[in-house]
Design goal:
CATH architecture of chain C: 2-Layer Sandwich
Number of helices of chain C: 7
Strand content of chain B: under 5%
Strand order of the largest sheet of chain C: 8-1-10-9
Low-confidence stretches of chain B: none
CATH class of chain C: Alpha Beta
Largest interface: A-C, 63 and 62 residues
Mean pLDDT of chain B: 83
Low-confidence stretches of chain C: 255-259
Helix content of chain B: 25-40%
Radius of gyration of chain B: 18 Å
Number of strands of chain B: 2
Chains: A alpha/beta (583), B mainly alpha (174), C alpha+beta (259)
Strand order of the largest sheet of chain B: 1-2
Number of helices of chain B: 8
Helix content of chain C: 10-25%
Distance between the termini of chain C: 54 Å
Radius of gyration of chain C: 19 Å
Strand content of chain C: 15-25%
Oligomer: heterotrimer
Number of strands of chain C: 10
Shape of chain B: globular
Mean pLDDT of chain C: 91
Order of helices and strands of chain C: EHEEHEEHEEHHEHEEH
Order of helices and strands of chain B: HEHHHHHHEH
Largest sheet of chain B: 2 strands, antiparallel
Structural class of chain B: mainly alpha
């Protein structure tokens, strides 16, 4: 049959009308709409049974109790444990996204373990009579720290170096009526946040600092002083210099300083943070017993200050950066290393810190992958023992710094956390608080095995408080203020600290809002002449590096606020001055 | 011809078929094991629905062969012994943007399983899983005429409208 | 749609936020992002193009030191109760107000991305997905199954953690509670706030702490003059914070011009 155009068109028209009476086109439309809603490449969350697991956050020494909402065994959300006697259910923004740390894109995933061990052995063998093997521990008083001390004691020339932090004293916030803080972020990342909140109504906070921090905005009184003049003010309050001299240096008035001195006198007990020139009132600072440890461990090396080591004397340096703590700037460390081929081994999850200066960077597990204990917080009047129980497994190939260092020193170790727990149990004091049921019981009523189980399933041990007031002064290198350095550089440096490394989700507070200054950025007054988000070079007497610029009218002209990434902290000695120029 | 294509050929083309990994017989288990729906498809303590039972539920009885069929032996060798989960395709699996609560329908509304799932519980074998090529959804929950067995929102809404339970979109979407 | 509905005791979920307690830490912002599967910032994201369902703003009283005072104000969708602007303007009906809970619910799956609602919202509480979400490799394991991740091109906003509301409803159904009663749950921001500044509850329940706090004299809402009847109440003893919340006309407040 010969088809002509008319017939084809009629057939097509008839089909078109006919097909509308079938489900086909309607189905195609709805299915396409459904297809457009389920865009490929958008990940679908895994489904499964929702469980609660418990651990403690090891990102800082607050060691807040954590309740992890898990899908199967995978944590998807972290929150605090309400009713906890120390953390009171609080968790800071860094702790809230702690469960994402294992997936950091720039994480150190592998390292030359065998070569590092060989180099360390070689270095130890080559040590001269006046040369040392040093172990730098940024977070002392952990169980691993005991192992490091024992390992250094096992070597004839081992030295254990830790930032000076005396764990035999603690702050009793409940007793303090006035807190005088020289730049210490009391209300924003100091001590145990939950504990600070609970005690807040009981003390008057006077914050002394050049730039209004979050703590200063919440304090009862903010004293704006010139950067570097905090020490002068402290000296005046301690009676070492005249009020007039301090007023000059700080940019305050004499009556202001006199009134402050009088207030401190009349409203004690006073807690002084950030300056060891002034003594806190005894009672605000208390003695604290050490968390018990096995007797055999007590033959360990004492903690040394970095300054006590002679310059150019360290042949082998091991740094455990797996637990973040006080950051010592590299130039202070570098001058202790021998000039010819020192061996520097750094255990880290990130290449941003000491790894930049290391010969060997060895990968470690991160929170919440590794079982590690958290030393007591500065504001915990009683000794504590809590384990950051792992919630997920670490990837293959991670190094345990404790095992590496012990092997290098020829020290045989067992399950040190279990040995520590057993020693605490043997001492018989204190209470065990378990998170799943929020119950406290005396340690005496718990068997050693159950104690160990409870610590690993979410629990903490709290000692009986010593209840002896201490006249000791609080000193931590990180928070000591120093006079400004003499230099031509135009800007005074004010350092702020954020916990690093942090989850990419912290971009909410760093980039998608202007709430917090991201590590590696500086903030300047708009009069500086630079644009928002400009790339600039930050330079001090110690060197230079690239930074991003944030403009903030709250920063006084002549001041640069620096969010301390390790690279920036290397450049900023206490009292540093800087200049920031466009790239 | 268009009608023929639309009604007959189009559904064949639109759906892709996939057999279930194990040809499970609900009938045998209901008759011989005396199992009811909730013995394997149970609620957890927090009210969520456990869905497909995990392999350890099957292993309770089938750790060793209970019968003489080759199918059961294959099942034990492939899944029970290596403790491997069969990759079941749930006919009623809701897309990502839907929040369906079994507790609300079974415990509160006291609906029978058959109302949506038809006579799955008495079927002797599992029919193939038919997946819509364009949208990626399952074709239907269980093809029983007269029941709201479709996978479209309209199928759920028709019953909700009858019962006066249409408050807001986010009741069912997440 | 609601004419033939069952009678239920309707809730009006709302919040009171104590501005004097907020220390600007941002815990609420990250907790919200974890709960609602909000992705980390794309490379091109700035504070104008980011996704922050709740955002903490830093405000000050405009004075110089020593009279300068600063405060932090968390702002999320205010769940307007009267003539909800976004509901009115959406051409797709992708947002509706739930009569049972008072929550203004956004359905990103229905949204076509015209962003009319973003223009209509007086609180700038709606955010657009300029890019497809991307999590670093492995981090998608930490996604919350209770909330759907969105694709690019749609608007999203706070819905008072509706995923948690679903879970609470399911638990209530399993426990045999009647569905006419509102359920008790807590959104991620209120749970996460370390200082306890955010309180959540049913404003319709006179016995709930939130309803009682909202009724106090020092409670106020943002942009009250617009009469959107939001359900988020703020509390502060500082007058200047109330003034900022009322957003007076320029010149009505004594303003100092500063660089």
């Amino acid at each position: 049959m010969k088809t002509n155009r008319r017939e084809i068109l009629m057939f097509a028209g008839g089909s078109a009308v006919g097909v509308l009476f079938t489900p086909a086109p309607w189905r195609l439309i709805t299915d396409t709409a459904l297809w457009s809603e389920n865009w490929p490449g958008i990940p679908a969350p895994a489904r499964g049974e929702i469980r609660a697991r418990f651990t403690n956050c090891s990102l800082c020494t607050a060691g807040c109790a954590v309740r992890a909402r898990c899908v199967g065994d995978q944590p998807v959300q972290l929150s605090g444990v309400s009713g906890h006697p120390l953390s009171h259910g609080a968790l800071c923004p860094f702790g809230i996204v702690g469960h994402q740390l294992p997936y950091l894109p720039a994480r150190v995933k592998e390292g030359p373990v065998k070569e590092a061990a060989a180099a360390v052995a070689d270095g130890i063998a080559k040590c001269g009579l006046t040369e040392y093997v040093a172990m730098l521990d940024p977070r002392p008083a952990r169980t691993a720290s005991w192992t490091y001390r024992r390992a250094m004691a096992a070597l004839k020339n081992g030295r254990y170096v830790a930032p000076s932090s005396d764990t035999s004293i603690a702050v009793d916030l409940s007793k303090a009526r006035t807190v005088l803080s020289f730049g210490v972020p009391v209300l924003d990342g100091w001590g145990t946040p939950g504990n600070v909140n609970v005690a807040r109504a009981g003390f008057r906070l006077i914050q002394v600092e050049p730039v209004e921090s979050r703590t200063a905005s919440m304090a009862d009184r903010w004293l704006r002083v010139r950067p570097g003049s905090e020490d002068a003010l402290a000296q005046a309050l301690a009676g070492q210099i005249s009020h007039a001299a301090a007023a000059d240096a700080a940019g305050l008035t004499v009556p202001e300083i006199a009134a402050l001195a009088q207030e401190l006198e009349q409203n004690g007990p006073v807690l002084v943070l950030g300056s060891s020139r002034l003594a806190s009132t005894a009672g605000a600072v208390v003695a604290r017993r050490e968390t018990p440890a096995p007797e055999e461990w007590k033959k360990a090396a004492p903690a040394a200050d970095l300054a006590s080591l002679p310059d150019r004397s360290v042949r082998v340096l091991l740094i455990d950066e797996s637990a973040p703590g006080g950051y010592l700037p590299w130039n202070a460390i570098e001058k202790k290393l021998v000039a010819d081929n020192p061996v520097v081994v750094v255990f880290a999850c990130s290449r941003e810190g000491y790894a930049r200066h290391a010969n060997y960077v060895l990968p470690v597990g991160v929170y919440p992958e590794v079982a590690e204990d958290i030393p007591p917080a500065i504001d915990s009047v009683a000794a504590t023992f809590r384990i950051a129980a792992p919630l997920v497994s670490a990837p293959a190939g991670m190094v345990r710094p404790e095992a590496f260092v012990a092997a290098a020193a020829g020290l045989a170790i067992g399950d040190t956390l279990r040995e520590r727990a057993d020693a605490i149990h043997k001492a018989g004091r204190g209470t065990l608080f378990t998170y799943a049921d929020a119950k406290s019981q005396a340690l005496k009523d718990v068997s050693a095995d159950n104690f160990w189980k409870a610590l690993n399933a979410g629990g903490c041990w709290i000692d009986e408080p010593d209840s002896k007031p201490s006249a000791a002064r609080l000193t931590t290198v990180a928070s000591e203020t120093r006079p400004a350095e003499e230099s031509e550089l135009p800007l005074a440096v004010v350092l702020t600290h954020e916990l690093t490394p942090g989850s990419p989700l912290l971009s909410k507070v760093y980039r998608e809002s202007n709430l917090r200054l991201a590590p590696g950025r500086v903030a300047l007054n708009p009069s500086c002449g630079l644009d928002e988000d400009a790339l600039a070079v930050f330079e001090t007497l110690l060197g230079k590096c690239r930074v991003g610029v944030t403009l903030d009218a709250a920063i006084p002209p002549g001041v640069v606020q620096v969010s301390g990434s390790p690279a920036l902290m290397d450049l900023c000695a206490a009292g540093a001055r800087a200049k920031v120029v466009r790239v | 011809m268009a009608l023929g294509a639309g009604w007959l050929a189009f559904p064949r083309v639109l759906y892709r078929s996939r057999p279930e990994p194990v040809n499970f017989s609900h009938k045998i288990h209901a008759d011989k094991a005396g199992a009811k729906c909730e013995d394997c498809h149970s609620f957890r303590d927090d009210g969520t629905f456990a869905g497909m039972p995990a392999i350890d539920k099957c292993a309770v009885c089938h750790a060793a062969p209970m019968g003489t069929t080759a199918a059961e032996k294959n099942f034990i060798d492939d899944y029970v012994t290596p403790n491997r989960e069969p990759q079941w395709a749930a006919y009623a699996r809701q897309p990502e943007n839907v929040s369906f609560s079994h507790a609300a329908h079974v415990k509160r509304a006291k609906m029978a399983c058959e109302t949506c799932h038809g006579n799955t519980g008495t079927s002797d074998n599992l029919r193939p899983y038919q997946i819509d090529r364009i949208s990626g959804y399952s074709r239907d929950i269980w093809k029983t005429p007269g029941t709201p067995h479709g996978m479209k929102m309209a199928d759920c809404v028709s019953c909700h409208r009858q019962k006066g339970l249409e408050h807001s979109c986010l009741d069912c979407h997440k | 749609m609601t004419s033939a509905n069952k009678q239920i005791r309707a809730a009006r979920y709302g919040m009171t936020i104590d501005v004097d307690r907020c220390n600007g830490c941002g815990a609420c912002m990250v907790a919200c992002s974890v709960e609602n599967n909000v992705p980390p910032a794309h490379e091109g994201a700035t504070d104008r193009k980011g996704l922050t369902w709740i955002r903490v703003y830093k405000v000050d009283n405009g004075e110089e030191y020593p009279d300068r005072r600063t405060a932090f104000v968390p702002v999320m969708c205010q769940h307007c109760g009267n003539e909800t602007p976004c509901v009115h303007v959406c051409p797709q009906q992708a947002v509706d107000i739930d009569p049972a809970t008072g929550v203004v619910g956004e359905m990103p799956q229905r949204c076509l991305g015209c962003r009319y609602c973003m223009a209509a919202c007086p609180y700038h509480a709606r955010y657009f997905n300029w890019w497809d979400p991307a999590w670093p490799a492995g981090m998608e394991k930490t996604l919350n199954p209770g909330v759907t991740p969105r694709m690019r091109g749609v608007v999203e906003k706070c819905n008072l953690c509706h995923g948690r509301w679903h879970a609470a409803k399911e638990a209530a159904a399993a426990a045999g509670k009647p569905d006419t009663e509102p359920v008790d749950y807590i959104p991620a921001c209120a749970e996460a706030c370390p200082t306890g500044a955010i309180h959540f509850g049913d404003l319709n329940d006179p016995a709930s702490p939130v309803a009682m706090e909202a009724a106090r004299a020092e409670s106020f809402r943002l942009l009250e003059k617009l009469n959107t009847q939001p359900k988020i109440y703020y509390r502060s003893k500082k007058d200047w914070v109330r003034e900022i919340a009322a957003a007076p006309q320029p010149g009505a407040r004594k303003e100092k011009v500063h660089a």
